[in-house]
């Protein structure tokens, strides 16, 4: 019900609007709940409060999806503008002195899956810091750090090796990925999709195949996880991937499929010893993001 015109209009809670935008962007109450650090039930209560104030439904929901209503789409534009103005105003008082450019390196796989989320949230909290990103292989990123061409970088590392001065952010298994219902793993020699020397996943996979005496051939080579996925989905090859990278149309191939165990890998971060305040701010934000991802079971 609309408020009578002779009464003051209600004020919208920015915290509720932040939750509303998170749901609209993720299409999920559960995913949005983890991003705003609330429980799903608390998020549902916030949206009910918002809809009660407006007297309109902002989402249409069924068992599998959440979509904006026409009123919700109109509100989304206002919500984003209100949150942006709030961030701009608050940043003038809270982070007025942190200004600069940060040169960040990342492997392709995490640059695609995690960095967009990290950088978006960082830009919201630190609008005066610009982050320039370099995507490359881990071995090249470490060289760039040694040459002082980067201020900090993420890099993948074998769990059998010391992180080489890096701070481990996560550890997870590398698994054999195949197409759901596919038969690539049954072929002899085994068709494998990998990249060239320097890739931690490649090293672990080929070591495992050698240990088991399994014949293989490199059927597909790609430096990008998108290419690896294409080879898997076409059932051209199997590929070593982090377990969290498996898509809904992929399956993990284990001992029951005749595939050897590869082991784990780690993602680490190294920060320049001469790190400035902006660099330290980016590093702290990355640490906090991966802690949330671990706590929510994303890795």
Characterise this structure:
This is DNA-binding transcriptional LysR family regulator. It comes from Aquamicrobium ahrensii. One of its GO terms (molecular function) is DNA binding. Keywords: DNA-binding, Transcription, Transcription regulation. Belongs to the LysR transcriptional regulatory family. With 299 residues, the chain is α/β, with parallel strands linked by helices. Helices cover 42% and strands 23% of the residues. The strands form three sheets. Strands 3, 4, 5, 6, 9, 10 and 11 form a seven-stranded mixed beta sheet that branches. It has a two-stranded antiparallel ribbon with strand order 1-2. A two-stranded parallel ribbon has the order 7-8. Strand 7, helix 8 and strand 8 form a beta-alpha-beta unit. Helix 1 crosses helix 3 and helix 1 crosses helix 4. The longest helix has 25 residues.
């Amino acid at each position: 019900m609309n408020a009578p015109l002779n009464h003051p209009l209600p004020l919208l809670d920015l915290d509720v609007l932040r939750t509303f935008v998170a749901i609209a962007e993720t299409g999920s109450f559960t995913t949005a709940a983890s991003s705003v650090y609330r429980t799903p039930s608390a998020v549902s209560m916030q949206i009910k409060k918002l809809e009660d104030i407006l007297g309109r439904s902002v989402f249409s929901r069924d068992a599998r999806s959440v979509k904006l209503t026409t009123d919700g789409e109109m509100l989304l534009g206002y919500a984003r503008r209100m949150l942006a103005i709030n961030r701009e105003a608050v940043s003038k008082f809270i982070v007025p002195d942190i200004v600069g450019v940060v040169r960040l390196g990342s492997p392709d796989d995490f640059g695609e899956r995690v960095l967009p989320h990290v950088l978006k949230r960082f830009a919201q909290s630190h609008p005066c810091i610009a982050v320039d990103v370099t995507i490359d292989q881990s071995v090249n990123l470490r060289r760039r750090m040694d040459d002082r061409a980067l201020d900090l970088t993420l890099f993948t590392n074998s769990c059998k090796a010391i992180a080489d001065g890096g701070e481990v952010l996560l550890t997870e298994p590398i698994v054999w990925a195949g197409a759901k219902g596919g038969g690539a793993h049954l072929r002899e020699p085994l068709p494998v999709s990998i990249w060239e020397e320097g890739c931690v996943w490649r090293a672990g996979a080929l070591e495992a195949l050698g240990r088991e005496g399994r014949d293989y051939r490199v059927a597909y080579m790609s430096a990008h996880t998108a290419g690896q996925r294409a080879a898997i989905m076409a059932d051209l090859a199997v590929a070593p991937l982090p377990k969290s990278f498996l898509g809904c149309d992929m399956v993990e191939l284990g001992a029951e499929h005749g595939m050897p165990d590869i082991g784990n890998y780690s993602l680490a971060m190294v920060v320049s010893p001469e790190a400035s305040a902006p660099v330290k701010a980016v590093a702290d934000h990355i640490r906090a993001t991966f802690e949330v991802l671990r706590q929510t079971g994303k890795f």
